Amino acid sequence: MRSVAVVGASLAGLSAARALRAQGFDGRITMIGSEPHRPYDRPPLSKEFLAGHLAEADLVLEADGEDLAAEWRLGAAATGLERRSDGFAVPLADGTSVEADGVVIATGAVARELPWRLGGVHTLRTVDDARALRADLAGARRLVVIGAGFIGAEVAATARTLGLDVVIVEVAPAPFARALGPRMGAVLAGLHEDHGVRVVCGVAVRALTGDGRVDGVLLEDGRRLPADVVLAGIGARPAVEWLEGAGVEVGDGVLCDAGGGTSVPGVVAAGDCASWFDPGLGRHHRVEHWTGAAQRPATAVSTLLSGGTAAPDQAAPPYLWSDQYGRRVQFAGHAGPEDEVTVEEGDPDARSFLAVYRRDGRTTAVLGVDQVRQFTRWRRRIEPVGAR
Amino acid sequence: MIPACPLAALPRGEAIRLDADPPIAVFHTEDGELYAIDDTCTHQDASLADGWLEGCEVECPLHASRFDLRTGQVDAPPAKAPVRTHRVVVEDGTVYVEPSDLPPNLPPGVRSRSA
Q1: Considering the domain A113-234 in this protein, what is its CATH number?
Q2: Which one in A89, A95, A348, B114 has a CA-CA gap of 20 to 30 Å to A151?
């Protein structure tokens, strides 16, 4: 293999390029990015960057002087993946095309949007999104966050810290229930209520109101929440439309084996766009966490360079962190609805605790709030479902 | 020299954080060596004393950057800048740290209290 096209120039793409060089690949690397920016870190976009504590330069992922000897094609999205007799061609939106022997798919995910197009309605995925949201919050008094996931919760916390009135609306009966289970979800909701944020659960949004610019959120139960700004934190879908017709098997993201290999030899995928087979769960599973985008590309690259013969590393359990109101939330593993949850350290009412999720005596997940040292130890006890 | 703790209070495999400015982490490795580095990860505000100690390396508890305790160098990203190392001395059963004269590499958004 003499050339590799890395499609996607964010954390997963950069990690893939680094892994290529670290694993001895000295051929041509072409980095293709739809955004005009060099790789940057997204987690601060809902926190320190939104609050104005970090500048754009602080988000840069590459180290000073780091040189991967790659060719960068930024600001031109890939529009397809074509198989050639001797490799692949990746046509770009600017009409050019990149040819390569191997391809790493790392195009990430796209924020889901609400169906109402009004001024003051935002999603948050890119630095440009964050800049626009920050500018809008600066002149606003009331923010409604739709969707109590981590991005929504972090934006709520940041906006509250900036002095806005904030309401979070979640259609599920409890916030964060999908990730953390209902009991711990309610504890995290309490953290928001401690700081004067209203959390409205179990009710859907019927419509956004406003003439040109949003002025409120109408709920299914008839309530109307006044709003100057609305953030939709309703999840993301994998950015895989460009692969239509390429022969790469796609489900909820690019379907991969446990080493990141796709249905097409010479093509691997990693990061938010990829749904890797998880041997522990016994099914494909798409992970949208930063850690997956940072670590799995190395496995995918070793699959690519070995032609699929390298045994994949055991993937670490999914891990996420979140900072809200100065509290550090960390979660690792897979929480199931049937899991028994016990508090092993601290006190949920004091918003500093460590909770362990167990199923059939097996530790499946760990949640820590301001318990970093304990979390570091406990997360290593997580056992995959199929471990015994 | 800053007195850290009695050596007996820092078992092998453990670390403590000293409330210096900026804070310093002292590690006692499984092999019995003592090392001191800046406690704050150079990538983002996290305490390396809370991290995972393995051999002569500590892994940041937040994003898994790894630092070599002997040199302070980054062994694994996302951190880009090294941490400072500090000299450790044991006298009469007490661990002391002599803070480095070099400027620290604090993460963006975190400032030294004296700065």
Answers
A1: 3.50.50.60
A2: A348
Residue A368 Cα, gap to closest chain B Cα (Å): 12
A326-387: in CATH 3.30.390.30: yes
Q: Which of A78, A110, A112, A108 is nearest to A95 (CA)?
A: A78
- Please give chain A's pLDDT, 388 residues, in tens: 999 999 999 999 999 999 999 999 999 999 999 999 999 999 999 999 999 999 999 999 999 899 999 999 999 999 999 999 999 999 999 999 999 999 999 999 999 999 999 999 999 999 999 999 999 999 999 999 999 999 999 999 999 999 999 999 999 988 888 889 889 999 999 999 999 999 999 999 999 999 999 999 999 999 999 999 999 999 999 999 999 999 999 999 999 999 999 999 999 999 999 999 998 889 999 999 999 999 999 999 999 999 988 888 877 889 999 999 999 999 999 998 889 999 999 999 999 999 999 999 899 999 999 999 999 999 999 986 554 4
- B-facing residues of A in 324-353 (CB < 8 A) are 328, 330
User: Measured between alpha carbons, how far is A226 from A343 in angstroms, rounded to an integer?
Assistant: 38
Domains defined along chain B, listed by start? 2-98 (2.102.10.10)
CB A198 within 8 A of CB A167: yes
The CA distance from A195 to the nearest CA of chain B, in Å, is: 22
Residue of B nearest to A49 (CA): B109
CATH class (in words) of the domain with range A3-110+237-305: alpha beta
Cα distances (Å, whole numbers) of residue A171 to A89, A119, A134, A147, A233: 43, 23, 26, 7, 12
Scored b (16 or more CB within 10 A) or e, A237-265 reads ebbbebbeebebebeebbbbbbbbbbebe
Sign of CA dihedral A245, A249, A254, A259: negative
d(CA B85, CA B99): 8
Q: How far apart are CA A102 and CA A3, in angstroms?
A: 6
For chain B, list the strands marked E by DSSP.
Answer: 2-6, 14-18, 24-28, 34-38, 52-54, 57-59, 66-68, 74-76, 85-91, 94-98
CB A335 within 8 A of CB A165: no
Q: What is the largest CA-CA distance in chain A?
A: 63
Chain A residues with CB-CB distance to B64 below 8 A: 291, 294-295
Question: Which of A54, A53, A30 lies closest to A41 in space, CA to CA?
Answer: A54
**What is this model's ipTM?**
0.90
